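A common beginner's mistake is to predict each chain separately and then try to dock the pieces by hand. The better habit, illustrated here, is to supply every component at once so that their relative placement is modeled jointly.
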Amino acid sequence: MKNLARRVVFSLATFIALAIVSFVGVDALPGDGCTALLGRFGTNAKIEACRQENNLNDSVVVRLKDWSGDLVSGDLGYSIKRDEQVSKIIMPRLRNTAVMAAVAALIAFPSAIVVGLLLGRYPRKRISKAVNQFSVIAMTLPEFVIATVLWLVLSIWIPIFPGVSVMPSNATVLQLLPNVWLPALTLAVVIFAHSMRTMRASVTNVQNMPFVESARLRGTNERKMIKRHIVPAALPPVVNVVALDGAWLLTGTFVTEAAFNFQGLGRLAIDAISDRDTALILPIILFGLAVYLVSSILADSLVRVFDPRLRSSNR
Amino acid sequence: MITTLTQSHILGFSNVTVRIKNEARDSRPILEAIDLQLERGETLGIVGGSGSGKSTLLRLAAGVLAPGLVLDQGEVTTVGKNLLVATPTERGNIYGSVVALVAQSIGESLTPHLTVLSHFRDTVSDDVVDERVLESLAEVGLGGEKYLHRYPHQLSGGERQRVLLALALVRSPQLLLLDEPTSALDVSIGSEVLTTIDRLQRSRGFALVCVSHDLGVVSQISKRIAVMNLGRIVELGQTSQVLRSPSHEYTKSLVSSIPKLDQRIRESSSQNNETVLVCRGLGIVRGQTTRAIDSLDLEIKQGEVVGVIGESGSGKSSLLSAICGLVSVTDGSLHDGEGYDLSTAVQMRPREVLSSIQMVFQNPDDSLNPMRTVAQSLSRYTHATNSEISSALLSVGLGEQFLMRRPREMSGGEKQRAAIARALLAEPRLLLLDEVTSALDVTVQAAVMKTLADLQRKLNIAMIIVSHDIALIASFVDRILVLRHGQLVEQGSVDEVINSPQDSYTQNLINISARRAAI
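With all components supplied together, the output reads:
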């Protein structure tokens, strides 16, 4: 418990430090909200007037103070370029990405754990080796290649899913669903390969451990053996991979969203970067940061559930 | 030879040969022409060095053959069945209820995320579990409910071994197979575990096969003994007869290699008044609060050999680590003969001090770099020339051919000799030996100790040797220190300590050792 509290405090400190670094870093880039808004046609006078209006001429420290004060009170900022509250722009996209991530996670993680367990039980069988090799390909292929293959198969040859999503970013979840499948499947392929391989390796490793043989020699039947001895011992490394992949699903989907024109956070990030819309880039960076920090705390807490040695303080 | 098995046989090996898969037929098999029968309720001890095939034989009795090994010929019959060809389900039905095996690695044989009670729930159904579990735990000396909800890491080594025994016996098997039941335990705890096994065997009447490298262990719990060497049973007979009049050469060397309390392998050398180590009121705290060593006074003269004995956690290894600067000194003073303050960490010590104190560690596999040849390992910090290395190797009994070998091409004894040679190359005034022979077979141990005795006489260096084996210490040193929970509970010359021990713990160690020597 004390450990967990320490972790949370440390993560918060990390978050604050990186938030400041991000603000200063983005600020140091050439261009700001006004040059983004006025583009090439902005005369120096117009840009200066716009900066005056939006307090962009204040020093970095003053703006950082204002920005962080707003952030604490729940105000993510204002995009001059898009003339809208940042939260209004981000929230629907975040929801879209979250739905896509949830679908991908539900497809990939349970099946990866089951398949990894089955293959890990028989590491020497040809099928086990073959699937393992094949998953390396899935892991190393760029997402746009997987996306293209899936699109070709599931949208052109067998037209099940729409190839490009043509929904507005604030569509209802029901409208969203048909468009979610192809990007979610693309992501699922990558994270399935990743977590399945970890599970397979972990199961293979665990079942060669003396305690498994010891349990077998006591007459423990195979069902109990898997349920009670092998799986709980094999899961901790997988939990860590799932946490990392889960965080990636929420924050690393730029390519996939771009490939399917899916109106999610990744797509928005690309737009924001190409527009130099600094007010919009910062909250997206901070969100990614928070997701990784939270997921690693969650993973560590979950691993403690499986391993009593990490829980107890004595010895 | 053809053996007929009768109903009373519970285990039978007839002409069994086991080889490494795909290896040439003229290479030495892992097991060769093993013939062995065990009656119901009979006890058999199998003793042999590492690589003798004793563990392979024991596991074969449970129908387990390591991947990479094949049964070349012969047949193994366990309770009337050939377990090697049985289906997994058939074997599952036999394990635990008819045959039980307790493997060697007690540290890893319990599932780390399950409590003691959960281990029993694997094989004992829920409705009867509590009474039967409590009963079996009480039988192995773990009475009361407090053990039920403990996890393996909350048990001591002896407790783990007892839990494993209780798990093996809870469904009353007819045949119990034990692999090195005490090798991971302290002498006194191991002896208690053996007493428990012996008592259970007498009251329950199961047949027992116990494998060990230690003749003393198997003789304590078995009526018959089989001696194995290089995959063969070289001698088989009643325990008392094998021990009293061994017929095979290997058995003879095995019996004579056991250190005896009253047998010296090294004569005291001339000591002068030059001290090499002085410590006053030494205290070492490890972790948050654990006192590894508490107010210890010790003075060692040049050429003196001091033995330190104690169970695990007594602080004997901490003492050595402090002297060579690997753990920090908390209280008191620690100086070498020149007056240099040894509470300095190893990184901060000047070269002369570093080379004047050398340590040889317990496991040569951990202390020799597997990637380097012996010549490379030995010249690394000593900057010795090849001829210096050769002569150092020669002094520990290794020929020139070892210069270019890597650790994996050497036996355990050869590796430890190389590690000793490395320590000697630094020309130390004080040599620290931490359980240097505990990973070695007893015959190899005797040879290594002999080498150390010769070297000590020739070079007249001071030594501190740490061991859990009081007979080994008594045969080698001038002075004995007994440590317990970081306190010096006894010290004196070998004769004083062995003949009139003052402390009950020393007394107990001597009794166990004497019993073993009297076998």
